[in-house]
């Protein structure tokens, strides 16, 4: 098994990545993701119901293997109660309890915003979606702890507006918990981010964690971010805190 430090051996990394990909294929990545889902979620529950607060917005989530319904509720700057609902049927906004029409471009923006919050909350569960492409990269160490590194990309069909984004996930080799992730995004001017899991706790048998978010827009290669993080060379951007009110698995 190869163990490499990417920040100093970029070209070696590329060669090793190709060799590992050819030798291991997606089966290794799939096995790691499945074990991480088991570690975080106890497997794939048939139904998830969740209620939480994020950045002063109230969210609810209902997801089964076939359907989903996401909502967010808040008050706008003039005190109007806003309730956004995103489901298999599409997007609908309510103002003071009454449905309203919104332009398609705004509906798309609101939907993407809700999806983004839910995506990170549900990780690593959604890494088994049909549009996900998994590649096992290899073993690395971060701060002396061994990790499996998996690259995630998306098929255009079913991958959403941001299907061309690329993610990296560091799964603890012993626990299979997801300790770090990084991603390269292209909306709103694009950029790169590195996230460190913090404040890990268990809620009704599910591992919930917050994140410390680092900005890395000046970095060319995602695969160097773990080394830059170790060296204290990433810029802290924010802390992402999720206050779970209720969580039910069935």
Automatic annotation (TrEMBL):
InterPro entries: DUF6503 (IPR045444)
Pfam families for this protein: DUF6503
Protein name from the UniProt record: DUF6503 family protein
Organism: Negadavirga shengliensis
Lineage, uppermost ranks: Bacteria, Pseudomonadati, Bacteroidota, Cytophagia, Cytophagales
